[in-house]
Specification:
- The structure is a single chain.
- The chain is mainly alpha-helical.
- Helices cover 69% and strands 4% of the residues.
- The strands form three sheets. The chain has a two-stranded antiparallel sheet with strand order 1-4.
- Strand 5 and strand 6 form a beta hairpin.
- The protein starts with 21 loop residues before the first helix and ends in a 6-residue tail after the last helix.
- The model has no long low-confidence stretch (mean pLDDT 84).
């Protein structure tokens, strides 16, 4: 490794290249897998495909991403929600073959953009995304998911359920207890222990459905939908045109996640291993998912939350989580058992994970001494936060620009077009300068005799 790679982040308990002991590594990897499991299997459930395939493609995609980024980035890839509405429409019209073709096309968009970035470089990133844009965007990434966490914690079939909310709060409290009142390895796996405690309480309260576990086989090969084997190839131009542009939306979110990882690990992954490699990894992962029957993949906020809270940034742990996901996709009962974790438990953990992401956005603003006394900074941050957290989106036919992507683009534009100083600030500075010049001139024309 180069000297730059030998850098160790003093804030990390396990830094990017550090390898935990085997037993500890397994538990830490399971913790990361638990954190992303709910969202990863929810996407295929929403669009009507096998959740085990999504788990398999998630694990394979993460390992492919790590290989292409030279095992330098502690990122986990899960099912992307950005494509859900489009995939649901395509499933009703033409079935999974159309979804697969759209997924492969969106992955190819990533690959093309990655090749362009490799050619022109990524030096523009810091100019386009300074701290005043990056900080609020990261806050938006965390808080835009706040409603999802709250709904998971409170709602049972779209109705408020006090029992659900009680389980969510209990899960959150136990996680905080393990995080704050214990030390050593117990503190590191506080999220997994919190989930277990919440799950046990949910079992006692009768809100865990074990029917899926009972029906599931111990060993089962996921029912893959492989192009050319499971179905004959056919062109679906509408699917390509519908899904390929969404890749530009997920690219924006991908860059936001990389910015969070840069802040957490005190590295610059845009330069090393390079933005083109992270984009390429995401694209190839999505192409693989499309070929085997899974949904498009993307980097996951839940796992970034785990990294931020536990301070375990080891790529060994993330690779272990990917291997666990692959194994669990073949062990039917284990996958079904994790799938049986009720939503209030996931919601209780999400309160902490998503909030931790947002807090890292605040940390960037503080660490970079962003002055909110300047109108420019105040305006950029205000617009990004309200559009992003408020859920505003741009809809053009079947194409939708999500609130995160929209707020990011608007923030970049504002940073580009707004002057460094507002006209009123320039006038005030000029006035103060004139006053200062007057005082200096007065003191020179009326010298004081000190003798």
């Amino acid at each position: 490794m180069s000297k730059k790679e030998n850098f160790r982040n003093p804030d990390a308990i396990l830094d990017v290249y550090e390898k935990p002991e085997f037993g500890q590594g397994v538990l830490l990897s399971l913790q990361h897998m638990f954190a992303m499991f709910g969202s990863t299997v929810l996407v295929p459930i929403l669009i009507g495909i096998n959740p085990s395939i999504a788990l398999l493609s998630s694990g394979i995609g993460t390992l492919v991403h790590m290989i292409l980024t030279h095992f330098k980035i502690p990122a986990y890839l899960g099912s992307s929600f950005a494509f859900v509405a489009t995939m649901q429409a395509l499933m009703k019209a033409d079935g999974y073959p159309a979804v697969a073709q759209g997924a492969i096309a969106s992955g190819l968009v990533y690959v093309i953009v990655a090749l362009i970035i490799a050619k022109v470089g990524s030096g523009w990133v810091n100019k386009v995304l300074p701290p005043i844009v990056v900080g609020p965007i990261i806050i938006v990434i965390g808080l835009s998911l706040a409603t999802t966490a709250a709904n998971d914690a409170m709602m049972n079939n779209q109705k408020y359920d006090l029992t659900y909310f009680g389980v969510a709060i209990f899960t959150l409290v136990m996680t905080l207890v393990f995080q704050m009142c214990f030390k050593g390895f117990t503190s590191l796996v506080s999220i997994m222990l919190g989930i277990i405690c919440g799950y046990v309480l949910a079992c006692f309260l009768g809100i865990v459905d074990f029917s899926g576990v009972e029906k599931a086989a111990w060993f089962s090969i996921p029912s893959l939908d492989v192009m050319g084997i499971s179905y004959h190839f056919k062109w679906y131009p509408a699917a390509i045109l519908a899904m390929a542009p969404i890749a530009f939306v997920t690219m924006t979110e991908h860059m936001g996640h990389i910015m969070v990882l840069n802040s957490l690990t005190k590295r610059n992954f845009f330069k090393n291993p390079g933005l083109h490699r992270t984009m390429m990894g995401d694209g190839i992962s999505t192409i693989i998912a499309g070929f085997i029957g899974g949904p498009p993949t993307t980097s996951y906020g839940e796992n970034i939350g785990v990294l931020a809270m536990t301070k375990v940034h080891s790529v060994w742990v993330l690779a272990g989580a990917a291997v666990c996901a692959i194994i669990f996709s073949f062990v039917g009962k284990l996958a079904a058992l994790i799938e049986s974790i009720p939503m209030p438990v996931i919601g209780g953990i999400s309160f902490l994970l998503f909030g931790t992401i947002a807090s890292n956005g605040l940390k960037i603003l503080v660490d970079d001494n962003v002055d909110f006394g300047e109108k420019r900074n105040m305006l950029i941050a205000s617009v990004i936060l309200v559009i992003g957290i408020g859920g505003a989106y741009l809809q053009l036919g079947n194409f939708q620009l999500t609130s995160v992507a929209l707020s990011t683009i608007i923030g970049i534009i504002l940073n580009w077009v707004l002057p460094k100083k507002a006209a009123s600030e320039k006038a005030l500075e000029e006035k103060n300068k004139q006053k200062q010049d007057g005082k200096i001139y007065g003191s020179l024309s009326n010298p004081v005799d000190n003798e």
